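User: quick one
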Amino acid sequence: MQFRLTAILSATLIGFASGSAVAADVANHPQREAYFGETHVHTSWSFDAYIFGNHMTGPADAYNYAKGQPIKHPLGYDIKIEAPLDWMGVTDHSEYAGVVRLANDPASPISKLPIAKDLVVHKPEDIQRIYLQLGTSMIQMKPIAALVDPSVSGTVWKSNNAAADAANEPGKFTAFCAYEWTSTPRYSNMHRNVFFRDCAKVPEMPFSSLDSQSPEDLWNWMDGQRKQGNELLAISHNANLSNGIMYPTDVDFKGRPIDKAWAESRDRNEHLTEIKQIKGQSETHPVLSPTDEFANFEVLSYLLGDPAGTFPQIPGSYVRQALKDGLGLHANLGVNPYKMGFVGGSDSHNTGVPYRQDNFFGGHGHADGEIKTRMTGALFAGLDTRLENPAGLTGVWAEQNTRASLFDAMQRRETFATSGPHIKVRFFGGWGFTKDDDKKADWIKNAYAKGVPMGGDLAAPAGKAPSFVVWAVKAPTSGNLDRIQIVKGWAKNGQTFEKIYNVAWSGDRKADRLTGRVPAVGNTVDIEKATYTNSIGSVELTTVWTDPDFEPGVDAFYYARVLEIPTPRWTTIQAKELGIPPPDVVAATVQERAWSSPIWFTPTDAARKAVPAGTTVADLKSKGAVALTDAQLNDLIVGKNLWLRNNVTGGIFKAMFATNGQRVIRNVTQGRMPEQSEIGAALENGLLGIPTTYVIRNGKIVTYFGNAPFEMTVFKAGDKTFAARSNEFGFANYEIVPEPAALNPNLPPGASL
Amino acid sequence: MLIGAALFVVQRALHAPADAPSPLNTIVLTQDDLRQMSVSWLAQGRPPLTPEEWRSLIEAKVREEVLYREALALGLEKDDTIVKRRMVQKMEFLAEDVAAAREPNDAELQAWFDKDPARFAMPPRITFRHLYFGIDRRGAQAKSAADAALTRVRPLSEDAAVALNVADAFMFEDVYRDRTPDHIAKDFGPPFARVLFELPVGVWSGPVESGYGWHLIFVESLEPQRIPAYEEVADDVRTQWIGEQSDLAKRTAYEQMRSKYVVVLPSVPADAPGAASRPQASDDAPQQ
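Assistant: Done. Structure below.
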C-alpha cells in the first residue's frame, strides 16, 4: 500500500508541476476559437488493439502523433498527421486494459499466468480468436478473473493518466484523462467515452463494462463522482452499430419504462454524441430520412463480431431520429433525454489516426494496415474494410486551449463535428438577427450578444420566428464548400418530423421555387486520376436565415450541415495507386461535411397549450375504448384496404393488406407524408408495388421497418376507430376514414381545368 | 458514532472456539482505514453508510485479514502467480519511486541539457500582414488581381498599402503575430507555410497561394529557429529528465538483478506443444 500511494503521489506532483508552470500566459479569446481535437483513440494498451497487431505504441505516442510527430504504424511504417491537433483524450478500453500487451511481454508477470498462453499472438488467426474470447467475455459479462485484478488494471489506468499529464501543455495542447466504457450487449455497441475535467481528481479505477453493461449504472457512478467534485462527461458513439438500442424511447437497458428520472440522468451525463468515425456516420440513414438527398454518406450497417444471422436495426441507431424522439419525450416527461451536441472521432486502434482521404492507413493494425489487404475488401471480423473511412474530427469553440475551458465548452455543447477536414462552422440562434448580421466586422461579438451559440436554447420568443446566423469556412487543404443546410426537427403530438433547408450555397445556382432544392454543385473529380480542382464551390459561406415554418407551440431543434464539393474517396485514390478500377461497393467520390451542434426551441407552457391536443391512448381508454383482438384485427384488415388519416398532418393514405401477409401504402395525400420521419420510403415503395410483410399478433398489426418491429394497436371508440403506432409516445394519431373522393387538398373545391 | 472512535479493535478471542487456547491476535483498523472504506463506498455513488452497513463492511474487512493471516501461516503465498505478480509490481513501483524521489539540481539539469540542446530547439516565429485576393469574389482572376496589386503596393509602406483598399476582407486575421510554421500550416495549408518563411522581411511580396486564394505578404519580423538557453526551458528539461531517469532506473535495476541469475530452459524442439509459450517465441509478429 505504501509503495503504491507514493507512486501515485509522485506521478500527480510531476503532472501538476508541468501543468501549472505555463498556465499564466495562456492566450484568451473572448470570442472563442475553434480548437480541433480527438475524443476517441486506442493504443496498444487496449486489449483489442494489441491483438490487431498494435504492440509498440502507447498513450504517450498518441499525444506525440497528435502534436505532429511521426510515429510507427503497427506494421512498422511511419505515419504522420495531416495537421496537428489542439487537444486529445486517449480512450483505451477500461476492460482488460493493458493485459494482452502484458501477456505477450515475456518480462511481465501476467505472461506467466495460465490464461496468458491463450492471449499470445502467433498467427493471424489468433487475432480473431483472442478478440472473440475477450470480446465474448465482455459481451456475456463474464470477466476473466485473473485479468481484472485491480493491481493490474489500476496500474495501467494510472500510467494512462500520467501520460496525459505529461502531454498536457496549457495554451498549446490539451491532453484529457479519459477512457472508453465498452459495453457490448448481444453484439450491440453501447460504448461511451468518458472524459474527466481534472486529472487530479480521477478515481482510483474507472467504471468498466465488467462492473455493469447498463448505461444507467454508468450514469449513477458518474453522478457519484460528480458529487465528490470530479466533473466528467460521457460521449455515446457508433450508435449506427448499436442495433437500435443507443437511443431507446420505450424501455431502458434494464427493461424499465423510460421515465423522468431516466431522462434526467441521461441528460446530466451525456451532452454529446459522436456523429462520425472510421466505422461510419451516425447522423441519419436514407431509410429514416428519405427526403434528405445527402443522407447516403458513409453508411455502415454492421454489428461488432458479426454474429451469424443477425444484422442491425436501423431505427434507434441514428442521432437525428434521437434528437426528434427527444422532443417527443420532452412533451411527455418534461425532460429531453436526447439534448445532444455533436463530436467526431476516430476509434482508431493504431495509436495514430488518419483524418483524410489522401492519408488513409486504416484503423485496425494488421487487419487493414496494408493497401492490398484493405483494397481487396479483406473481411475484418466480418466487416468489408473498404467500407471504413477516415476519422471524424471535433471542433470546440472555447476561450482557451486548456482542460477546463475545453471541457466546459463540451458541457455546453458548443462543439461541431467534421468528417475529417478542418472545416469551421459557427451557428447562432436568436429573435432579432437581421439581414446583414453576418457581414459586419464585429459580427461574432454581435451574434453572441443577440443570440445563443450552437448547443444552446433559444430564449423565450421575442418575435414572429427565430433567426439564425450561420457561417462556414473550408479547410485550407480540402475541397471548397458546396452549401450550408439547416436541418430542422420538430415533434407534434408524439409524431416527429424533419425538414432540410438549403440556406447558403456557392455560385449562381437557383433554389427550386417549390421544393427548395438546390441543383448539385457539379463534380470536378477525375476518377481515373483520383484528382479534383477547387474551380467550383466557395471558400466561405455565410447567411442569416429565418425559419419560414415556425410554430410557437411546437418543440423544435435546428442544426447546420456544411457540405464540401465532391472529392475522391480514399478507395478511389488507392485504386489509382494500385492501377485497378475503384471498388463498386462504395461511392467513388464523397462530399466531406461538418455538423454544428443543434440549437433547441422549447415553447412556453401557454403556447404549447394553444396547439390542439391530440388523442392519446389514455384518453381513448378513459372513454371506454377497447383495443381490438387479433380476431377483430383480422376481420378489419386482411384482404382489405384501410383508409387512414394522420390526424397530426391531416394527410390521408391507403394501406392495402393482402391475404398473403403483404402490405403496401398508396394514395397518399399530396405533400403530407414525405416530411414525416420513420416511415422510410413507404410511399415510393407503395407506388412501385414493393410490399412489406405484416402479421397480427398480441393485439397488434406488426410490420418491419429497417429491421425493427413497427406496431399498431387499433381502438374502437364509439363509431370511430383509432390506431396508435409504436414510438409515438402514447398518442393514437391515426383514424380510419371513408375513402376520399380526391386526394389533392391544394386544388380549390369545385375547380375545373 | 461509536465506529468513529480512534481505534477499532477486534478481539479474536470473541470469535475463537473455546478449545483454542492460542494467544490473542490483534487486528487494528485505524481512522484512515475507516475513512478509506467510507470513501470507496461513496465513490460508487451510494448514500452514506448506515450503522448496519458499517458493521458488515468492517466484518468483511476483518474476514479478509483473518483469512489472509491464516493463509500465510499455511504458506499458501508460495508459488502463487498472483502474489508473485503483485510483488513484482511493487518492485517496479519501488524502482520508479527511487527515480522520482531524487530532485535534480540545476547544475545537473543544465549539464544534461547541454549534452543535446537540439532536442529543445524552438521553431522559427513570424509576424506578417497580408492582403487577401479571394476566389469567392474573383474566381480564376484572383492571382492576376494580386499580381496587379503588387506593383501598386510594392513601393508603399505597410500602412499605406492597406489604405489603398485593393484587397478583399479576410475571414480570420489581417495580421498574424509570432506564429510557428505548424500554426501557419494549420491555418493556411502546408505549402503556404513553406513559402512564407522564405519571404524577405520589410517589403511587400507574393502573391502566395493558400487554401483560400492568393495573398500579398508583408513580413514584419522573422525570428529564426534557435536553440533556447537552458533557463527558458528549465521546466521542460526537468520533466524530460525525470522521464528518462525513471526509465533508466527501472532498466538498470532490472539488469543488475537479472545479472545475478542463470536461466535454464528445457531443450524442447520448436514445434513441440508448449513451445509457443517460450519467451523467444513471443517475439513473432503475426504476418498477413
